[in-house]
Design brief:
Distance between the termini: 50 Å
Structural class: mainly alpha
Oligomer: single chain
Low-confidence stretches: none
Order of helices and strands: HHH
Number of strands: 0
Number of helices: 3
Strand content: under 5%
Largest sheet: none
């Protein structure tokens, strides 16, 4: 078995053990440890954030969001939620 096959097998195994909340917090943890700043907000370009999500999902063996469920099944908190506590 090649090193690439071992890595692929390990990634698939890890993805099966990753819960959705763990993935969200893991993505945020990874973003806060990187050099540079990823700006998020209504006036920012979403492409860099999407590329970060794609890279994180790929590294963790997570697939792309299912088009039939994304974003229809997501619930978003109100934009007035205080994030500065």
């Amino acid at each position: 078995m090649t090193a690439e096959q071992v890595l692929c097998r390990e990634t698939i195994k890890a993805a099966a053990q990753l819960d959705p909340a763990g993935a969200v917090y893991g993505l945020l943890a990874w973003l806060t440890t990187r050099k540079g700043t990823l700006r998020l907000g209504s006036s920012e370009d979403a492409a860099p954030a999407a590329r970060a999500a794609e890279a994180f999902c790929r590294a963790n063996g997570l697939g792309e969001p299912a088009e039939e469920s994304y974003p229809r099944h997501l619930r978003f908190p109100p934009s007035t939620v205080n994030l500065d506590r």
